[in-house]
């Protein structure tokens, strides 16, 4: 509406000027000098007025564009001073400034929010200009991992640690790569990946690093704590009765030696006690041997085999003994052509362990049933699942079932599932367990 009003006013002025010029020509033709002078003065006034009318609008727009050029959105244009059309124009300029300031505030808030998140993570992140080396953004973790102070240009690292600069900044790691770097006379392992992106005409490189030594050490420490806890429990269970029985036998022998006439040594009791110590010692030795078996499986003898053939072998071996315990068992393969590249003997051992565990879980269950099935999931992974409707695994021990020597069975060694997990890791697969106490369990082998 303001634009139309401005055009009408400008058109009106031009029309009057054109009319006055025609009047001036007419007065000159009739030689009326008085009117000619008056009209000439009027024409000059209107020309100056029209020039000022157009100029003040363009001056206002030029001021606004100048402010935009220098990103000065804090400028305020007076909305209550000057001609109406200019005041209306100033109102529009102020509205644009308000909108841009609100957008800037929102962007700034998002930037601060993102920056705080990236500063809190223990992953190092840096983005810098590939040509100039100027750092666009970097978090504190990046400097802490590489043991360098805050810097504005990556050339700073080149002058201080040229080998580190070549490894981290000059080499490209399109896929996440594990590398070792030397820091403070020690070597640490980091996971590094990078990408290059374009912003207008400039190229930037984004590098992400993570100190995986700390993560591995933490996980290893937790594993050792669990392992030592279980081993301590098992060893103490064996040593305590051995020590107690040995002390009793020692006291009996001392009494018999000191008072041979009044005290008769029961050779049968002595033989029984020594036999018990021998049995418990052999049990402790067997425990140590089972620990060693965890380290035996280090390589694979891979061969391509159909899952149906693998299931047939297991079925011939296990089905008679399982059915003898009144437990139904069923083997299912989604497609007969399903094949795996595996070490057959090791995977058979895994399935035997899982089936024995399922049988143990179903021993007091009516209508007990075990199902072994194989299919391909949505990720094109081949998955073998062993289902049972047995007693299930309590939640408080579910996370420990793969810890070496951990067992909830009175006669178990706690080695079976640990060995299963190691075999699956060697196959670059994984074993997953889901269980509901009182309803059953499912162990999944994912290849």
UniProtKB/TrEMBL annotation:
Q: What Pfam families does this protein map onto?
A: HATPase_c
| Keywords per UniProt | Kinase, Membrane, Phosphoprotein, Transferase, Transmembrane, Transmembrane helix
Histidine kinase domain mapped to chain residues: 230-447
SUPFAM superfamilies attached to this UniProt entry: ATPase domain of HSP90 chaperone/DNA topoisomerase II/histidine kinase
Question: Record keywords: Transport included?
Answer: no
Domain of life, per the record?
Answer: Bacteria
Q: Does the keyword Lyase apply?
A: no
Molecular-function GO terms, alphabetical: phosphorelay sensor kinase activity
Checking SMART domains in the record gives: HATPase_c (SM00387)
Which residue ranges traverse the bilayer? 7-28, 34-54
What this protein is called in its record is histidine kinase
